[in-house]
Amino acid sequence: MGNIVAIVGRPNVGKSTLFNRLTGTRKAIVNETSGVTRDRNYGKADWNGQEFSVIDTGGYSMNSEDVFDEEIRKQVMLAIDEADAILFVLDVQHGITDLDEAVANILRRSKKKIYLVANKADNSELIYAANEFYSVGIGDAVYPISSVNGSGTGDLLDAVVADFEVKLEEDNEDLPRIAFVGRPNVGKSSTVNALVGIDRNIVTDVAGTTRDSIHTRFQKFGHDFIMVDTAGVRKKPKVTENLEFYSVMRSIRTIESADVCVLILDATRGIEAQDLSILDLIIKNRKGVVIMINKWDLIEKETNTMKDFEQEIRNRMAPFTDVPIVFTSALSKQRLIKVLESAIEVYENRMRKISTSELNKVMQKAIEDFRPPSTKGKFLKIKYMTQLPTLAPTFAFYCNLPQYIKDSYKRYLENQIRKNWEFTGVPIQIFMRKK
Ligand code: GDP
Ligand code: GDP
């Protein structure tokens, strides 16, 4: 399970520019991978081989002008709750404003590790000016950086990564870890309670290694797995918190510590932007997915209701549509066992390893049937392929000119893999490598 770094600060200090630099993404690029990339406020970063999550708290839209301060306050509080480290960003070209002070006052009360980042320090004069920020009195140092040209970010990341807590993996490592996620009121606690309530004796609390996750071992009907739950699943939003921000933030830790996530949707609402944001988190973490359409008891049914509903959900999830969808009622416990069975199948799919010889035999044929179209007059040849020994399915294709293989062709390869082997519910990564 990784560390979570949150970027906080008032608008316009450069939070999203810094986020893009850390995660290597650009806002302008949408749908650049085979997965969905609708959520551009959450991403993965890597520094010296240490992977961690980054959240741009400012990326969550604010409602209106008068609740401005209030919104920032909530976002900072949530960041304090959920993140392991906080980057507090200020603007050296602008100096310290009242809003900066307000954010600083909240952060001062937190025990989390905070790094004071003096952004827009684009030249040596501005780097010198950043010393002014020592007066804020937060953190051990001031880190002058320029998110635009990248200077100073290395020193900042060295410090952040050096302070990371080593997070130990829990016991029972060979058991599947399954989590129920979804926005508020979809029925997460009802589902967990219904499963646990089937027989109180089938569950035992497993000592979790982190203060905020509860892991429960579930043994029944031939199933043996760990149900991952975090404090976040149980906590309800207090006031009218920005709901998207709330449910996305609260889901991160749960998703990171699971192998398979059951994404619960509310049948009476269909699939909404927030659900897709959570799906995006799951895909970015390369975890398995089962879609559970809950409260199905509330839907009036005609002949094709279920089929139509399912089709609509798959359309919205495109291009990642090879996912089990189960219609449930947590209230009447209808098909909850089916959800567990699907989750365990997805877990097995995620562990699947295809031998290099079998992979080459099948995929060479697929490539002969449909060759990578030559671009700019270049003849493209894929020579061989192998599944990498990573936890989540990742395939490397060795090719003469990897940079010329288009995303659409990668999607063809992915579909061929899915057609020939069972990877339902599992995001697949495809890399083109030079040979
Ligand atoms: P946010 O509202 O905190 O997310 O701020 P943005 O990332 O949207 O940045 C606000 C403005 O500051 C944009 O015009 C950025 O181009 C600019 N900006 C961000 N970082 C830097 C920097 O390091 N140097 C300079 N000169 N401008 C920056
Ligand atoms: P959570 O916020 O995701 O944990 O959602 P809860 O489990 O607290 O459920 C929110 C509300 O939806 C509660 O009033 C539940 O009784 C209700 N609910 C949950 N599952 C179902 C269901 O399958 N059918 C119906 N009709 N109501 C449900």
UniProtKB/TrEMBL annotation:
<dbReference type="Pfam" id="PF01926">
    <property type="entry name" value="MMR_HSR1"/>
</dbReference>
<keyword id="KW-0690">Ribosome biogenesis</keyword>
<comment type="subunit">
    <text>Associates with the 50S ribosomal subunit.</text>
</comment>
<dbReference type="InterPro" id="IPR027417">
    <property type="entry name" value="P-loop_NTPase"/>
</dbReference>
<dbReference type="InterPro" id="IPR032859">
    <property type="entry name" value="KH_dom-like"/>
</dbReference>
<feature type="domain" description="EngA-type G">
    <location>
        <begin position="176"/>
        <end position="351"/>
    </location>
</feature>
<protein>
    <recommendedName>
        <fullName>GTPase Der</fullName>
    </recommendedName>
</protein>
<comment type="similarity">
    <text>Belongs to the TRAFAC class TrmE-Era-EngA-EngB-Septin-like GTPase superfamily. EngA (Der) GTPase family.</text>
</comment>
<dbReference type="InterPro" id="IPR016484">
    <property type="entry name" value="GTPase_Der"/>
</dbReference>
<feature type="binding site">
    <location>
        <begin position="294"/>
        <end position="297"/>
    </location>
    <ligand>
        <name>GTP 2</name>
    </ligand>
</feature>
<dbReference type="GO" id="GO:0005525">
    <property type="term" value="F:GTP binding"/>
</dbReference>
<keyword id="KW-0342">GTP-binding</keyword>
<dbReference type="InterPro" id="IPR003593">
    <property type="entry name" value="AAA+_ATPase"/>
</dbReference>
<comment type="function">
    <text>GTPase that plays an essential role in the late steps of ribosome biogenesis.</text>
</comment>
<feature type="binding site">
    <location>
        <begin position="9"/>
        <end position="16"/>
    </location>
    <ligand>
        <name>GTP 1</name>
    </ligand>
</feature>
<feature type="binding site">
    <location>
        <begin position="119"/>
        <end position="122"/>
    </location>
    <ligand>
        <name>GTP 1</name>
    </ligand>
</feature>
<feature type="binding site">
    <location>
        <begin position="229"/>
        <end position="233"/>
    </location>
    <ligand>
        <name>GTP 2</name>
    </ligand>
</feature>
<feature type="domain" description="EngA-type G">
    <location>
        <begin position="3"/>
        <end position="168"/>
    </location>
</feature>
<feature type="binding site">
    <location>
        <begin position="182"/>
        <end position="189"/>
    </location>
    <ligand>
        <name>GTP 2</name>
    </ligand>
</feature>
<dbReference type="Pfam" id="PF14714">
    <property type="entry name" value="KH_dom-like"/>
</dbReference>
<feature type="binding site">
    <location>
        <begin position="56"/>
        <end position="60"/>
    </location>
    <ligand>
        <name>GTP 1</name>
    </ligand>
</feature>
<dbReference type="InterPro" id="IPR031166">
    <property type="entry name" value="G_ENGA"/>
</dbReference>
<dbReference type="InterPro" id="IPR015946">
    <property type="entry name" value="KH_dom-like_a/b"/>
</dbReference>
<dbReference type="InterPro" id="IPR005225">
    <property type="entry name" value="Small_GTP-bd"/>
</dbReference>
<keyword id="KW-0547">Nucleotide-binding</keyword>
<dbReference type="InterPro" id="IPR006073">
    <property type="entry name" value="GTP-bd"/>
</dbReference>
<dbReference type="GO" id="GO:0043022">
    <property type="term" value="F:ribosome binding"/>
</dbReference>
<dbReference type="GO" id="GO:0042254">
    <property type="term" value="P:ribosome biogenesis"/>
</dbReference>
<keyword id="KW-0677">Repeat</keyword>
